[in-house]
Amino acid sequence: MNTRLLPSRRLRGFTLIELLIGSVIMLILVIGALQIYSRSNKVSADQQQFIEIQTDVRAAMYFVSRDARMAGTGLTETLLGYAVDGTDNEIISGTTETPDRLRILGNMEDPLVLAIQTYHGSSVDVTMDDYSLERYPYPDSFYVGKVALIVPNPGSTCVGAAVRQITHVTHNADGSNERVNFSPGPAPNINPPGGLSDVCAAEDFIGGSMMFCDLREYWLDVTGSAAGQTAGVNGYIGGGQGGVLYMTRNSVHYPIAQNIETIQFQYNGDFDADASGTMDGFQDWNTSWTRAQVGRIRQIRILIVGRTLNPFASVGHNAGTSAGLYRRPAVANTAAASTNDWRKRFLLESTANVRNASLNLHNLGLR
Fold it and tell me: Residue 11 pLDDT more than 70?
C-alpha cells in the first residue's frame, strides 16, 4: 500500500470553531489592554492636574507670605497701623466663592531710604543731604514715574504720610543740591490702607524719610471678568479666565498663580492691649478694628486652596460620601460647598510673622 496517499494530521488546518474561539480570546485580550491603557491614561492626566495645582498654590504662597512678612518696611512705629488692610469674604456676584483680600504697604522691592533735609509741599519737592542719591545704584531715569512714600520724622506725633509720584531728580556732579520733584497732588490710583494721606505739616517731614512706595493687594479673580477691570489693561487678563490670583502693585496687576479656588487670611495680635501683652489668637479681619489695633498685628495666617481645572476622570461619580475631597472645603470662616464637582483640591497653610512690626527698621534700609 502506498502510504504517501494517506492524509496526515499534521497537514490539517484550524476549524471554523477554533478560529472563532481564538478570535474571541484575542479580542478579550485587546479590550482588556485598551481598558488598562485608558484607565492609566486617565490616572496620569488627573495626577498631572493635581501636580499643577500644587505648583500653583506653592508659588502663590511664596509671594504672599514673603510680602506679608515685609509689611510696614520703613514705616515709623506710629504708622504701623497703616501697613495692613484686609477684606473678609468678598461677595462676588453670581458665584459661591468668597475669597479674602489683603493690602500691604511698605518699601519692599527696591531699597531706598533718603533722609529729608527740607520738605516743600506747595512746590512738591524735597531736598536731601549731599551724596544721598549716590548711595544707591539707581540712574536718574530709574526714579521717573516711581511712587514715593514720604513719612514724618520718628519724633513727630502726626499720623500721616505723603504718597506722591516722582517726576525727576536733580543733583550736581559733585553730589550737592540733591533734590526730588513730584507731580502735584497725591499719586493717582494709590489708596494706602486706612486712607493714609498727606495731613502733616511741612516741619513734621524734616528729618523724616523718603522711600519708594510699594502698595500691594492680593486678590482672587474668581470669574475672569472682575468688576471695574478691563481685559488687557494694566496687566489684567480677564477674558473669562477665572481662578487667577493677582498681586496688584501700585495699580498694576501681576497674575502670580492660576487654578486658585479661594484665599483666606487671619490675623493674630494683642488686640485688647492687656497688661500681659499676650496675643489673642487668630481672627478674621474685623472692620471695627482701630488703626491702633491693626498696628498690633504680629502674625498673618494664609490659607490657599487650589482646584484642578477639570473634574477627575479616573473617579467614579457614584463614590458617595467618601468623595469629600471633590468639593470645596470649609476654610477659615468660609463654608464648604454642598455638592461635589469632582475636582480635586489642595490646601496649603502658612503663617507669616510681620517682622517689621517687631523690629525697629526705620531709616536703617535693612531688608
Answer: no
